[in-house]
Amino acid sequence: MLKVLNINKFIKDNNILEVSNRNSFDREGNPTNDGLYSNIIFGTTSDEMGKIFGYINLNGNVLHPSIFNSLSKLSTVFKKIVFNEKKYILQLGELIEDEKGNSGLGWLFNNWTKIDFSKFAKDNNSAMVEFITNTPRNELFVSKYIVVPPKFRMYTEEHGRTIEDELTMLYKNVLSLTNVGQLETGLMQAVLKNSNKDLEIQKAVNTLYDYFLQKLEKKEGQFRSTLISKRIDNNVRLVANARPDIPFNCAGLPWHVLLNVFDAFIIGSLNKNIFSKDFAKELGISSFSPSKLGTHFDYIFRNVDTYTNANPGKRELWVQLLKEMFEWHPELKVLLKRDPAWDSGSYHALFPIIIPTNAFHIVVNSLLYKPLGGDSFNSNNIVFEKDNVIISNDKGTLSTQSDSSYYLKSLNYYYKEI
Length: 418
Known about the structure:
It is built from 19 helices and 14 strands. By secondary structure, the protein is of the alpha/beta class. The longest helix has 20 residues, at 197-216. Mean pLDDT is 79; it is low at 187-194 and 376-418.
């Protein structure tokens, strides 16, 4: 079932305040009261700045980006109208191309309820046509646009300059179009005043929408990566990858995953101050209680890209802290188990190797790949040569078998050693 957020209702129900200033900071470097990092709009605490939204008044009506995409697939006619490529008239609910007609977002909005969308219905789009027909116009067109909390679009300081992230800059672009008078140059003001501002705003919100889709979709996106790396009681679910250079008794896991799997050991080590380097001070967590440290680790885990982008250099500190901890405590192991497991013996306790990237997978020796859930031995290291090779059966038992399909040439020296 298709559904779009009723933005006006969302704003009213949550008492969301308006962002109206494209200048995020004043001359003293403080957040402006009506800007994208405003303490008045988004709050001052870390918790507030991760939950409170803002909104931008578009000063007009544009199609919700998802509806724009759906209409474009329904018929090229709607895209031509929005982009003023062709002019149309309405006859008995049907859109007919006519040079004496009209086009543009304003015309489409005003005539929306007169259009007979059933004329565009086909077997593969009947649900979309029904949705467009039965949904109120003020939900399909938007006059306001939601701004996500600052915690998910952090800025950084470099050489005395404030560097805002890509998402914030996209919001600033929308603000520039909706508040032409704030633009710094008269030339840009003149250009926008003489252009189709509604169309430019439509393009800008479409770009914002596409940005979110890119961040949310696929395995690296927020939804799937969060599900893949779900953490409950020092457990994580990750994708297993094979790599021949990983020793048999080791497993490579992302730093932010290890940070949470071994959170109790890290917190205890920091409190006892067993490290020669004052990591806590450099990481800005000296005053954190154990409970707050756990919450901080969880935030890093679930927002690792945002955290590393906003805190340059801190990832390297965490990696060094983990490295020293594992050197200090070689008895620490990670327990890898296939989900669902074939039997109670399909697990491996391995020494952790730190992956210093924001990946969401574990890397194990290729011979452990299949019993840990890999579909096959296939990887970039495979060549097809007939030889006696050591493979593992479905219960993880190593055996020798003559096979031409699963020979990993780069592991040949391992096989000989065994």
